[in-house]
Amino acid sequence: MNSFKYRIDYKHASLSIKDILRSFSLAKDKIYLYNLNKKIFLNEQNVDDQTIVKENDLLEIELNENIDILPLGENLNIVYEDDYYLIVNKKKNLLVHSDGVSDELTLSNYVASYYKKHHIRRKVRVCNRLDYNTSGLVIFAKDPLASSSMDKLIRERKIKKKYYAVCHNKFSHQEGLIDEKIGNDRHNNKKMIITKNGKESLTKYKVIKNGKISVCDVELLTGRTHQIRVHFAYINHPLLGDELYSKDEDKNLLLQAYFISFIHPFTNEEVNVQIEMDKDIKKYC
């Protein structure tokens, strides 16, 4: 069976299946359809969503999914995988998913190709996104419950994300917190700006190398579009090679999402994923 599987733990014992699915932030309409179409199984027996479970019961949701993106490309750089999530290292100058304009291969095409090769009949679900010219870690969910659970972690700021950034100018302090709201630029739909009418945006940083060209270890406490790029430009440390927020002739942006940490929604274990610093960034350290 092409299905989501979850072994009931002590926290969910004595709850109804409906309540368990809600605890994973699954949409009410999906729960309704799974129940209506008899897609719910407990210990291999078809049941309804009002069924009360016991610890160690095996809950399954029949998915009947297929890959929904053209499977193209190989050599996907996988750094973490389990039954629920796939975390890959995206190279720079690669779209995470199609923008509807470019006909270039995307990271999602590579993931679809991996799914096809390994007989994983699932839709390609991106949990976090990186800009085209940013490298680093991207999370994919293998089923609707994994996707909704990760969305909840991100929404509640329970996932830790850290970046390496190469930027201009010497810092007067070795660490800091940038607390400036970010919103859309009404004059340029490709840019974001600092504005009092924007959304709360918090960025922590520590300086690794301080000089005319500096390197920082950056932690995102919120996840706004272009957050690091906008915040660092605002404090007069625009990122090297950032064609949107600085006037560099060199267009080689050096920004890498190198670390992700979260408590796994289905195993309750801490997941820490870290990759080595890009060689193009390391040469500035």
Query: Which sheet architecture does the biggest sheet show?
Result: 10 strands, mixed
C-alpha Rg, in Å? 21 Å
Shape: elongated
Q: How far do the termini sit from each other? A: 51 Å
Helix percent reads 10-25%
The share of residues in extended strands comes to 25-35%
Strand count: 16
Gist?
The protein is an alpha+beta fold and 285 residues long.
Describe the structure.
With 285 residues, the chain is of the alpha+beta class. It has three domains: 3-62, Structural Genomics Hypothetical 15.5 Kd Protein In mrcA-pckA Intergenic Region, Chain A (Roll), CATH 3.10.290; 65-156, Pseudouridine synthase, CATH 3.30.2350; 161-257, 2-Layer Sandwich (Pseudouridine synthase). 18% of the residues lie in helices and 30% in strands. The protein contains six helices and 16 strands. It has helices at 17-23, 28-36, 107-117, 144-155, 227-234, 279-282; strands spanning 3-7, 40-42, 45-46, 58-62, 78-81, 85-90, 125-126, 135-141, 159-168, 175-179, 182-184, 192-194, 202-209, 213-220, 255-263, 270-274. The strands form three sheets. Strands 5, 6, 7, 8, 9, 10, 13, 14, 15 and 16 form a ten-stranded mixed beta sheet that branches. It has a four-stranded antiparallel beta sheet with strand order 1-4-2-3, with no helix packed on it. A hairpin with a 3-residue loop joins β5 and β6 (85-90). The protein is elongated and about 65 Å long. It starts with a strand and ends with a helix. The model has no long low-confidence stretch (mean pLDDT 94).
